[in-house]
Every structure is written in structure tokens, then in C-alpha cells.
Amino acid sequence: MDTRISLLDSAERAVRQRGFDGFSYADLSKEIGIRKASIHYHFATKADLGFALIERYAERFFATLADIRNSGGSAAEQLRSYIQIYRDALAEGEQVCLCVALSAGRDSLSTEVLDQLNRFHAESIAWLTEVFERAAQDGSVSGCALPIEDASAALALVEGAQLLARARKDVSLFNQGVAALIARLATHPVH
Amino acid sequence: MDTRISLLDSAERAVRQRGFDGFSYADLSKEIGIRKASIHYHFATKADLGFALIERYAERFFATLADIRNSGGSAAEQLRSYIQIYRDALAEGEQVCLCVALSAGRDSLSTEVLDQLNRFHAESIAWLTEVFERAAQDGSVSGCALPIEDASAALALVEGAQLLARARKDVSLFNQGVAALIARLATHPVH
DNA sequence: GTCTATAGACTGATAGAC
DNA sequence: GTCTATCAGTCTATAGAC
Fold first, then answer.
1. Does residue A82 contact residue A132 with C-beta atoms inside 8 Å?
2. A148–B176: do the CB atoms touch at under 8 Å?
3. Using CB atoms within 10 A of its CB, is residue B175 exposed (0-12), middle (13-18) or buried (19+)?
4. Given pLDDT bands bounded at 50, 70 and 90, which one contains residue B185?
5. Which of A39-43, A92-96, A178-182 has the lowest mean pLDDT?
6. Residue spans per domain, chain A
7. Alpha carbon of A7 to those of A34, A52, B56, B106: distances in Å?
8. I need a labelling partner for B161 at 20 to 30 A (CA). Which of A123, A174, B86, B109 fits?
9. What pLDDT, on a 0 to 100 scale, did the predictor assign at position B106?
10. Is residue A90 less than 8 Å (CB to CB) from chain B?
């Protein structure tokens, strides 16, 4: 097995459960069975580890979004898929998405990590804006305003709904939070 | 001056800027000019401090919500006031609301703090549900679904929008996130 | 690449004088 | 109520052997 990947996997789970300040090299050490000092061979500093985490995360995430876009479904179908990603990320209410975990953490994340975080938000809004622009044409989403405003609201909504669900360790709170948005989505192909 | 109150003020600012794990008794010590050990006289453990923080916060918050309810404005006006509380709490994008800060922090907050946090969410949704029920009657909010779903969405939205704004230290991202909701609010008295 | 050993700083918390 | 002094534990990080 690749130790570096095991470390990233373990660290990602830890950040999403307990925050960036909520786990240590000692935790990773125990979990994957390697000494603390050896971790520094793979990630010289914890900031480096943080950067690698969000870099890998963004790559995976936007690959998934590209797949959804290319699937050719209606805007409503694509939004449903988008929401599902955030619901899955909750993992029974134990975790939040990596970006929610980092957004809310210490404000002394390294500048590089913060930049990646803002890039993640910007690209998410750009992707969602395209979806809502398509919605204005295919009519599969009701009650639309300006695409960029709908997009920003959708991102804020899924991230906020994760926060609520995690506090109570209960996915149904996430579902309740996104229910009004889902109710706006057409359930049948529009044409 | 009351030392206990100074400590609470200082700690609240710290939590909202850096998270519960992001500040220490040493930080408070420097800020208010008292020795670390003396803080333990007022709050025996950090968990006790956390509990006092959210207790005071919830009290203040729900007193404000009660004022808004009693002001007798339309549902739209009351929602605008509600959103304004969250915008104000951002303080130039440097801070988030205490509950956002705690929701996203370590999952080993004491059970008591977690209970208070969930009580806060539940009461917020209850207050907002009443507002959306009134909206169904006074017609001052367009595009409504089920009151409880609109309420949950509104809470998730303002909390999520704070997350986005704070990551970029830019309140305009908050405004962009809530713009679509604000667009649904009638700007003139409905009757 | 992984190990042992350790540095140096910081953490929350306690004992006991004033 | 606030102080000095100190504790045991944790943290990230480094040096150097294997």
C-alpha cells in the first residue's frame, strides 16, 4: 500500500470529523501504524499536509462535477446529483465536507490552503451558475432568480445544512434543509 | 469592570474568529491582563467556559428574535431583520456566529455544549417556521413551500453564507448568498 | 522510508501564598 | 480574586542511526 495515500485518507477523515486543529500526527501514527516522525518524511509540516488534502479533494470533487455536467441530464437532475454529493459526504452525520471543515477552522490556516479553499468555492459557484443558466432554458427548476444568486444560495445551503446535520449527528436535518430546493426541481424530463 | 464578563467577551471573539480549539487561556490572559491561573477561578475548565459562552449567546439571540417578533412587522420585514443579524455577526468577514464556529469545531465538545447548540438550532427553526406561517397569510414572501422546510433552509442558508464570506474575509459573498432569498421578500407593507 | 530519541513550545489544570 | 510556581501531557518538528 502507498503510505502517503493512507496518510491522506486518514487525515481527511480526521479533519472532516474533528477539524484541522482537532487531529495530530500522533493520531495518524496510531491509525496507520507508523511512527510520528516518519510522517514528516511524507509531509514535512502539517500545513503541507493540509495543502495536499484540499488539493486532492478539489481534484476529485471537480472531476465528479464534470461527470455530472457531461451526463447530459436536465438542470434539475444535475442539481439533484450535486445535493447528493453533500448528503453522501455527511456519512451518517459524523463528518462534513472537507471545505466546510476547513472554512470553520482556525483562521491561521496557511495562505496557500485558504487560497485553495476560495478557489473551491469560486469554481463551485461557477459550475452551479452554469446549471441555473441551463435551468432558465430547460425550465426544469422553478422559482429561479439570477443564476449567480441561485448558485451562491445553493452552495451556502448545502454547506449550512451539513453544519446543522453534524451538530445533531442526524442526516434528516440535512434533508429538511434542502427539501425546499428539491421541491423546486422537476421530477420528469422537461422535453 | 466585571472580570467574568471581560473573559466571556474576549473568549467569544476568539471562538468566532479561530474556533474553540483555536484559543487558549494564555490568549485570554494576555488580552484582559490577568494571569492564566486566575481564569480558572471564574471557569474551572475550558468546557465550563464553552457552556457559559453559548448559554449567554443563546439568551441574547432569542431576546433579539422575540423583539423582532413583537415589532409586528410583516413576515418579510422580520426575515430581513433576521438576515441582518447574521450579516452584522460577520464583522467584516472576520468572524462567524458563535454557533457556526462551534458546529464546525471539534466533535468532542462537551455533551452539554452540544445540547445547547442543538437547542439553539431547534429554537431558531421554530421561530422561522412561525415567520413563514405568517408569510403564508400576509403574502409578503413569494415562492413559499412548507413553513418548516423554508425555515430549515433559511437557517442553513445564513449559516452557510457566513462560511463562504469568512473564507474570503468578504461580506459581499454573504450578500450574494442571501440575495435570492431577499428577492422573495416584499418591499412594501402588504396590508 | 522508517526508526529512536529528543527538543522546545504550548496546553489545560492544580497547590498554596497573599 | 489574583498571584507565583509547577505539573503532566500534548503538540509540531528535527537529528541521526539503520
1. no
2. yes
3. middle
4. very high
5. A92-96
6. 53-183
7. 10, 11, 40, 20
8. B109
9. 64
10. no
Average pLDDT, chain A: 95
pLDDT band at residue B190 under the 50/70/90 scheme: low
Residues of A in contact with B96 (CB under 8 A): 104
pLDDT of residue A66: 98
Residue with cell 434533508: A175
Pairwise CA distance, residues A77 & A57, whole Å: 23
* Tens digit of each residue's pLDDT (9 = 90 or more) over A7-65: 999 999 999 999 999 999 999 999 999 999 999 999 999 999 999 999 999 999 999 99
Confidence at A107, pLDDT banded by 50, 70, 90: low
Residue B165 touches chain A, beta carbons under 8 Å: no
DSSP chain B: --HHHHHHHHHHHHHHHH-GGG--HHHHHHHHT--HHHHHHH-SSHHHHHHHHHHHHHHHHHHHHHHHHHTT--HHHHHHHHHHHHHHHHTTTT---HHHHHHTS-TTS-HHHHHHHHHHHHHHHHHHHHHHHHHHHH--B-S---HHHHHHHHHHHHHHHHHHHHHTT-HHHHHHHHHHHHHTB-SS---
CA distances B12 to A48, B22, B27, B52, B82, Å, are 30, 12, 12, 10, 20
| Percentages of chain B per state (helix, strand, coil), in multiples of 5 | 75, 0, 25
The whole-number pLDDT of residue A106 equals 64
Distance of residue A173 Cα from the nearest chain B Cα, in angstroms: 8
From CA B85, how far away is CA B10, in angstroms rounded? 20
Name the amino acid, one letter, at A67.
D
Q: What is the identity of the amino acid at B129?
A: T
